[in-house]
Each structure stands twice: as structure tokens, then as C-alpha cells.
Model the fold of this input.
Amino acid sequence: MAETQNIRDRVYRTYLDFLETAEKKRRWSVFDDVPWDALDALKATETSAECVEIFCAEELYVPDYSSKGLELVRSRFGIAWFQTCWAFEESKHGLVFREYLSRSGLRTKAEVDALEAGICAKIWKLPFETPRQMVCYGALQEGATYIAYKLQKDKARAAGDTVMEAMFHLVGRDEAAHGGFYRAIIELELAQDRQPTIADLAEVLSNFKMPGADLIPNYNQRLRASGAGISPRMFVERVVQPLLTTLQISRQEFKQALKRRELDIQANPDADSRSRNQQRPGRIL
Ligand SMILES: [Fe+2]
Ligand SMILES: [Fe+2]
Done:
């Protein structure tokens, strides 16, 4: 979007609201807010470890997510500051899962070291080129992550696992707030530039995959085996449709955008910027 001063002010205001809520209502401690002492009695299982491990690996790419994201938006004050705050919050997600793996005894130090080494060996790249497309990606990705963590929280609560329940509650609440910020920015974009913004959302959805899909070995298979994933249907019903409803984009308007995109690809196959996302998404998250 062409950044007028008015828009810059509104984005900054949106960030300040996000930060105020984060500081007053959402801050939490890896050390004090998870009942680690309960781990001894809980008998954590290997399935829990596999589930937490894949989330941990995906969250630990925060140096790439934050550095590349910040570089993309550095001239946009409110979004750049969000990116720095976001990076801090995301850094705790990887850490709390890492602590779970170690403190539960389900992974040895050597295994955690190997997990870290595997992460450092690969670099995450921005899946889309423009800030607006990345905002659309953020809304979908945070929404999918929130739903995945909510499923784990509900499962833990039913099983009486207070440690898993606390972790997924705290981390999931952050993801919901991140999704809310991205949605608010999309609303500003829609007000300014409706059709191109919907086109970006259609573009991003058509190529969507979770960040770990290209980074983590056997990603989809491990999600399925550990019960950590969400199905494509759940992604549509609990992430995409609610997002479109909140943004007041009708199904028909969105379908038209998808259709225009297909026609555009047919007319200009060589100019298709989507080829940078060569792999189609498989299972979502
Ligand atoms: Fe996260
Ligand atoms: Fe997040």
C-alpha cells in the first residue's frame, strides 16, 4: 500500500494497542508460569515428546523469521516494531518447548544439541516478496498455529497433563494475538486498496504451507504420527473461513480473486512469480 502519513499513524496505533495488551495482560515466564514440578508425576510420553519436538524445531527458526522479516519491513515503523516484539515472544515459544524436552527427560542433552544443529544447518527464506503478502501469510500461519496449539491444550487438559496444558495455553495465546495484529493490518490495507489486497490473500492462500514444511525432515509424516498437525479441512474451516468473515470478504469476492489469479497465470505462465513456491502445500501444519 502507498504509505500515507495517515496510514503510518494507524499502523503505529495498531502496534501500540498490541504492545499495551501484551505488556499488561499477556506477558508470561518460561520459569514461573509452567508447573514444571508436576513433570515428575506426569510420566510424559514419547508421543508428547515427538509432538513438542516438531513444534520446537519450527519455533526455533526465529533468527531467520525475524531477521528476514525485519529487513523487509524496516522502513515501516509500526510493523518493524511489531516484528521486534514478535521475535521476542516467538523466542520464548521455542525455549519453553526445548525446556519441556530436557526437563521431562524425554530427550538427552545430545539429542537437543542435534536438534539445534539440524536447525542451524538450514535457512528459512521468505515465502513471499512483499510486506502485504507477508502480512497475509502471517495471518494464516498464526491462525493455523493457534488452532494446532489449542488442540494440544484441549488434549492435555482432558488427560490431566498440567504441564502441556500450561505450555500450549501460554504459547497459543501469543499466537492468537499475533494473528489479531496481522488481521488488523489487512483491514487497513483493504480500506486503502481492496482488490489488490484480496488478490494478495488469494495468492498467499494458493501457495500456503507452514514454515517447517521445507525445513524439517519428514515434516508432514511426523505431524501425522505425533498427532501435532491439523487437517486441510480444519485449516479451511477454522482458519481461512473465519479470517474471511472477520475481514468481511465474501466467498464470492474471494472466489473471483482466485479465478482472476488463475486466468493471470494462464495468460502469463512465464511471468508467474508463484514459481518461487514450487512445491504445492500438502498437509497443513
Ligand atoms: Fe510461536
Ligand atoms: Fe506467532
Summary: The mean pLDDT is 92.
